[in-house]
Design goal:
This protein is mainly α. The protein has two domains: 39 residues, no CATH class; 56 residues, no CATH class. It is built from three helices and no strands. The longest helix is centred in the last third of the chain and has 21 residues.
């Protein structure tokens, strides 16, 4: 990366915890922007009404991938801090993010154009 090559210097990360890729770089929260968090994340989604046994089978398969050190090392090498969430935790995250960003949009009076 440009940061690891010394071409740019990271000033802060936007997650609430320090990045594994840049452990010496503070978070914006640590720098005084209390509670600031803006992170991209990825999840595996399925259609509404997906049978529970299919969800369970997919969750188990994905968990096995998450236990593979080589796979996780590749993900972490991109600068991502990989974390495996259960279907319930993922739904909670979607709900929390929707509430948070809806408030930001409303408070900033952001309009679609």
């Amino acid at each position: 990366s440009a940061a690891k090559a010394g071409k740019v210097r990271p000033l802060a990360v936007t997650s609430l915890k320090r990045s594994n890729a840049f452990p010496d770089v503070p978070t914006l929260d640590e720098l005084g922007f209390k509670g600031f968090e803006s992170v991209a994340w990825y999840g595996l989604m399925g259609p509404a009404g997906l049978p529970a046994e299919v969800v369970t089978r997919l969750t188990r398969a994905l968990s096995k991938v998450g236990e593979d050190k080589a796979v996780m090392d590749q993900i972490n090498a991109t600068g991502c801090d990989a974390e495996m969430l259960s279907p319930e935790q993922t739904l909670d995250k979607i709900r929390a993010d929707s509430l948070k960003w809806s408030k930001v949009i409303k408070d900033a009076n952001i309009k679609a154009e």
